Amino acid sequence: MAQVTFLDAIKQAMYEEMERDPTVVLIGEDVGVYGGAFKTSEGLLAKFGWERVIDTPISESAIVGAACGMSYLGLRPIAEMQFIDFIVCAFNQITNFVAKGHYLWNAPAPIVIRGPAGGGVHGGPFHSANPEMYFVHTPGLKVIYPSTPYDAKGLLKAAIRDNNPVLFFEHKFLYRRIKEEIPEGDYVVPIGKAAVRREGKHLTIVSYAAMMHTSLEAADELAKEGIEAEVIDLRTLMPLDSDTIVESVKKTNRCLVVHEDTKTGGIAGEIAAILCERAFGHLDGPLMRVTALDTPVPYSPPLEEYFLPNKEKVLHAARELAKY
Amino acid sequence: MAKALTKQQHLDLYYYMRLNRAVEDTMVKLFRQNKIVGGLYSSLGQEAVSVGTAFALEKKDWLAPMIRNIGALLVKGVPPRDVFMQHMAKYDSPTKGKDGTSHFGDLDNLHIVSPISMLGDLIPVMTGVAMAGRYLGHKIVAMTWIGDGGSSTGVFHEGLNFAATQKAPFVLVLENNLWAYSTPVKRQVPVENLADRAKAYGVKSFVVDGNDVAAVFTTAREAVELAREGEGPILIEAKTFRRMGHAQHDPAEYVPAEMKKYWEERDPISRHKKFLFKEKLLDEKGKKEIDAKISALLEKERDFAENSPFPPAEFAEHGVYCTGDDCHKIRAKWERPIAEVTPPKSGVPAVWTVEGFGSGKGSGGGSAPIHFGDTVKHEQKEEAAPSNNGAKSPAKKTAKKSVIATARKAKR
Ligand SMILES: Cc1ncc(C[n+]2csc(CCOP(=O)(O)OP(=O)(O)O)c2C)c(N)n1
Ligand SMILES: [Mg+2]
Fold this sequence. Notes:
The structure holds 2 protein chains of 2 kinds.
Chain A: E1 2-5, H1 6-20, E2 24-28, H2 44-48, E3 53-55, H3 60-71, E4 76-80, H4 91-98, H5 101-105, E5 112-117, H6 132-136, E6 142-144, H7 149-161, E7 166-171, E8 179-182, E9 195-198, E10 203-207, H8 210-224, E11 229-233, E12 236-238, H9 242-252, E13 255-262, H10 267-279, E14 288-292, H11 301-307, H12 311-322
Parallel strand pairs in A: 2-3, 2-4, 4-5, 5-7, 6-7, 10-11, 10-13, 13-14
Antiparallel strand pairs in A: 1-8, 6-12, 9-11
Helix pairs in contact in A: 1-7, 3-4, 8-12, 9-10
Chain B: H1 7-32, H2 47-54, E1 62-64, H3 70-76, H4 80-88, H5 122-136, E2 142-147, H6 154-166, E3 170-176, E4 179-180, E5 183-184, H7 196-200, E6 204-209, H8 213-231, E7 234-239, H9 257-264, H10 268-278, H11 284-307, H12 375-384, H13 401-411
Parallel strand pairs in B: 1-2, 2-3, 3-7, 6-7
Antiparallel strand pairs in B: 4-5
Helix pairs in contact in B: 1-2, 1-3, 1-10, 1-11, 2-3, 2-8, 4-11, 5-6
Bound molecules: thiamine diphosphate (TPP) and magnesium ion.
Residues 147-149, 177, 179-180, 242 of chain B line the site of magnesium ion.
């Protein structure tokens, strides 16, 4: 088994799916000759040709719209947003056209919309977004935000094979920073299943994407203090695997949610509501959350560092929670 | 130039325009009886556009109607009962009560894509349909319509430009009825012909009298042929007039009376009838037969629609997601050898490549620089980054192997 970066895992997933299934095509800005701004589609054009690796003008609505139209004839397009920040330029196409089609007129749109998301790389206010919750709030879409190369590959394959529109967020901080051995050849990771990354009994930390790694590091440190944290990696935000969260909290009686998305309207609020509905009697303390600030993502390093959650902030919250 | 129309084609065009009008007249009655749940839009006086353009399509072709294109749906083979039931929000309607008006489609048989209310969205979608059809070897043309008002949306421009770069077999009918709700076209688009905009995208365009059904049909037929031959996309501006208000609620008092009169005198159905009578393609008896046929059909269709129940309330919960193969088997229909699009053959340039593009060198493989977040570059920058009262940036840590190893163990 080879050590593979997150970025290579994405590339492998697309390559293998395109090789396996000629209905899979890739459409986006600079995805062809240049191989994508982040090189996730490098080599695909040479292998699969111009009809399947489609360079487009800078027109996010057209990219999503055309992908949707192609899917009506049985293709499975992958639409790339050069940066996920630009996905909101196609907001109407996604939320009104793509998301509602199956419900309204029984028309599935098996497309994947994917792209690099997240901060921590000083990308500034327009190249660091975590826009997942706009779409989690839109019935008809599935939303995936993985944290490991293994999951990235397996979930992207699952997304391509899914009959629904799937939004697939790739945290760009992880692209080349993490490596993992992943099996050669085909495997999928099921959509809608969280993973327990670390078992523990004193509190549950729920997280996803880059913050999952921050949470694990914090958990290691907490262990030295005698606090055993269970860490859950959501992997999929819609549909949310609430069973895994509820089960864990019934055991630990405490829940901390860590996400890089801003606080208000983040998934932590939804998880708080679910726990109130399903595990109220099991809670020994309030649900706590460590999230980004309710501001745009600032550019300058000290500002961005202040804005983002980090291990210290997680540790602080976890210690407070453990006291209950 | 254009091939002459056969007698049958002339008569069919007449029949569908008459049917279009009669269906809408019936709906006005239903509306007045409070049997239509939402709004009702009218294409009175614009029937030649919907009918003449859709009539140029083959059975295998795809279309997506806008709100005033009931006529196009009828030409494509949608039974009037479906149109009635959509408006009446009935359970037997194509969307089973989940949406109204012309908002329904049929992927498998009639090849109709459902519109949504947001104007212009269909343009890239139908471009995608056209591209997929070409990719699968279907040799189809995709067609949709847009109003003079809708032609100012961003997605109109994104879509038409993208279709142009793709040479998509796509025909866009710009139905210029001089009004967008209460706003006259001159207030929206300060150019003489809306079709002039096509030039800016390198798109071929036609301007046609939208109240002359034979002219609309011959123009559309030429556009469809060109698109099918790889000369697409094509824009057709059909000049016409919206004779009713924006919808039933709107008396359209803002429209000058003389303007209404001018266009009433150019009613597309009367005009075509006059032509048919003059050319002896139809006589009073034949006309009466068509009228009788349509009345009988619509009476039956209307009865069916009125007797259809409303959907059961709990149906509201169903169908947000496709649940898999039991719900939809998604299968592309290949009409070209798959080998052409799979390696090693697929690396061959396609027919619409751009000259000189792609002949340079590729980038440097796995270590090629990426836009942001490149580890090496990033870590160098980190040295100089000021610290923020002890709070460590996640950017400072490259995730440790141990972390990932833990992750893997727990997962499997
Ligand atoms: C993007 C968008 N904005 C606003 C509306 C509301 N709206 C519906 S129809 C209409 C006027 C459309 O005019 P036009 O495109 O000329 O079509 P017509 O009604 O004349 O057929 C407006 C403003 C809409 N449907 N979509
Ligand atoms: Mg108009």
